[in-house]
Amino acid sequence: MSQPVCGDECSYSIYNKNLLNRVSCGPGNGSCINADLLSPINTVEKTFHDTRLRGATTAINVILDGLRINPPAGLKLSFLHVPGGLMLAWVEENGPVPDDSITPESPANDIRRAVGLIEEAY
Fold first, then answer.
1. Is residue 105 a contact partner of residue 54, using CB atoms and an 8 Å limit?
2. Which helix (H) or strand (E) holds 81?
3. Nearest partner of 96 among 20, 37, 40, 17, judged by Cα
4. Which helix (H) or strand (E) holds 11?
C-alpha cells in the first residue's frame, strides 16, 4: 500500500477541474492523512485499544486495502479532517492549490458545502 509523499503533515485543497470537484493533498497542517487505521503491536495490550478495537481496526483496514486495488487514475485514498469528523476521499498527491480552492482554513460551512455535508443553498 502506498502512502502520500507528505505523510502526516498534509493539507487538503478542494477545487474544480473541468467541472469536476477534485481534492489535492500537499504539505500542510495534517488535515489530509493516509487512510489507514493504526493498532498497537500484537504484543502490547492497551486498555484504550482492547481486543474488540484491534479486531475492528483490522477489519476496517481490510476494507480500505480492498478499495486501493483499483483506485481512480492518479488518486490516493485518504482521510480528510473536515468540520464534524473524518471523510474518506480520493486525493491527488501534491496536486494544485488554486487561489479559489477550499482549504482547512476556509470557513467551516464553506468546507461542509464543498464536501457535500450541507446543501449548496445553506
1. no
2. strand 75-82
3. 17
4. strand 10-17
Segments making up each domain of the chain, as ranges: 7-114
H/E element holding 27?
A: strand 20-27
Look at phi and psi of residue 18 and say left if phi exceeds 0, alpha if psi is from -120 to 50, else beta. Answer: left
Q: What is the reported pTM?
A: 0.86
Summarised one tens digit per residue, pLDDT across range 70-112 is: 999 999 999 999 999 999 999 999 888 888 999 999 999 999 9
At position 118, the amino acid (one-letter code) is I
d(CA 108, CA 62): 32
d(CA 9, CA 31): 8
CA dihedral 100, 103, 107, 82 (to 10 degrees): 140
- Residue in 73, 70, 41 with CA at minimum distance from that of residue 54: 41
